Every structure is written in C-alpha cells, then in structure tokens.
C-alpha cells in the first residue's frame, strides 16, 4: 500500500474577490408558456427563487432580457421559443476559507484537505467561493493553455460545507469515471445482497472522526437507518432526514474516547454508503447529534420544522431573505474525513490517504504524542 510516493506537502489558494461575477440563467419559452406575461412566467416557474414582488423588482431593474433585448415591462407578453435571460447581479458571498492543502497528487487524481466552512460545489449563496473555483484558478495559474483550463480537476464525492478533511478529485475522464463508480458502488451495495458486499468488491473505504454529544454506552454500533427527503423551508430540493421510507444507508461507529466531564464522546465512523449528511443524520438518529450541529437533533430530524411558514419579504437582490431556521450548509459541528483507502484508478495498487486531525478530534494519547513530537523538534 502506498500513501506518500506522489504526495506533495504544499497548499494553494487565491484570496476571494470582494464580489463574485453574478450569474446568468437562460430559459426558452415552452408551448405552455405562450401568452404568459414576463412576471407570470418567472413568478410561477421560479417561485422558490423570489416572491412576486422580488421578481417585479428584478424585471424593473433591467435584469431580464428577451431575445437579447432588456425588457422592463412585467406585463410584456411572451412568445413560444423566445430566449429569456435573467442576470443575477454580483454579490458578496459569505466569508469562507480559501487555502487548500494537497494531501496526495499524481496524473490521475488529487486529494485535498478541505477546511470547514468551504463549500465544494456552487450552490445557494456560494457560487464562487468554492473548492471547484480554487481548483480552476490553480490550473489556470500553472498552465494558461485552453486545454489545461478545460480539464481542471473535479470532486468525485460530497463533503458538507462544515465538514473538513479528505476531498478526492479526478484530473482525467478515466479517473473521474472510475472513482465515481467506487463511491456509487459502495452506496448501491448497501441496499443489495449483503453477501455481495462481503465478497471483497469494495474499492474504497472512508473513515471519519466525529465528536458527539452524550456518552455512547456501546463500544461499537452499526446504524442502518434509511435516509429520505422531506420538504423544508429554505432548501428547495428538500432536506435529508432519517426516514423509514428512505434509501438504505450504513454507518459503522466505534468509540475512541468518552469524556464524562464534558458529556461528549469521540468516535470513528466508517461509512459504506454515501447519502448526503449521512453521518450527521445517523449519529443524531441514535440520540447523539454531532456536538455543535445547528440542524439535526436526536431522532435524525431538523431542530425546527416550520415547513408551512414562508417569509414573503425579500432581500436587496429580490430573492427571499435567508431562512432564520438552520439549513444543511450551516457550520459549527465537528466532523472530519480522516482516512481514505482506495484502489488506484489506473495503477495496480492500494492508496491510503490521511488528513491531519484537528486538535479537538484527537484522543488524549494522540494529543500527548503531538506535544512530545513538537518538544523533540524544538530541542533539535
């Protein structure tokens, strides 16, 4: 097994600009949109983006064009086949870290140590301040050729914005296909025949560290609670929660250290499936939410569930105000993707990648070893 032959001890990241570049959303009027007015089209098609008054503001502000011409009349009648473009104005995204540490890199893939607070892919308020954008800027800086810019690395799995640790990215199409298959195969095997899962077909293993509230009684726990989606304000595609009718998910939890004085437990979690927010949901489902998790509480459900309430006031850009209830991207919890073992996508070898642990997720012995190491280095 190899874990350091191509590892580079370096970090990269450019400072975020004050404002992002804004966004352009394009639509073509379908037959069902014939004779609709401009305001009717947007307020019905994209009611999750902004309330009626917000869309009126955007139209009157000159942010929408029809067939290349800015139209500020909300009552303009649309024709089938017309191209509509909504320009979302540049905005200042919330603060986010910008430095990424390279844990491993070769011609096929790159593994990064993602800091908590940095989103992986564009979404919501974060359209530029993402891992994906930093990867693009890195390639552009290394090589200005068009071909290089078009083939910048892409993440092949998810890590929540508040989760730190190993993020695996593919640098080639072959690697992307192979690595994505590793992750999807692990998830599908959980819902398939258990004998097939034990046949040695797994090509990837993911181990996390987490700090949970309360004291776990058992040293080892297997959680196979299904995860599904429910409607939730502020999350357009719905919120993932523990649900009997959801999709299969499997997590193996092992206690590393109990802290009775502070009523918390340090655990190691190996996930054999990759459902969104799986560890947060599973640990909260068993009555031990992640310490500091603003969203999930015991039972694997959200802290607040005012699903029928919608704030019709709108922000400066016309969109809805940020939800007052917690949403999945909120940070504050302690979860770290610590180790990843995988079969290399093109080489006949197993790769082990480790992301250094934050101090709060180390055992007492690990903390003491770190201090001893520092003391020895200082003495030398």
Automatic annotation (TrEMBL):
It catalyses: a uridine in RNA = a pseudouridine in RNA. GO terms for molecular function: pseudouridine synthase activity; RNA binding. Residues 109-284 form the Pseudouridine synthase RsuA/RluA-like domain. InterPro entries: PsdUridine_synth_cat_dom_sf (IPR020103), PsdUridine_synth_RluA-like_CS (IPR006224), PsdUridine_synth_RsuA/RluA (IPR006145), RluA_PseudoU_synthase (IPR050188). GO terms for biological process: enzyme-directed rRNA pseudouridine synthesis. The keyword Chloroplast does not apply. Keywords: RNA-binding. Pfam families: PseudoU_synth_2. PANTHER family: MITOCHONDRIAL RNA PSEUDOURIDINE SYNTHASE, RNA PSEUDOURIDINE SYNTHASE 5. This is RNA pseudouridine synthase 5 isoform X1. It comes from Durio zibethinus (Durian).
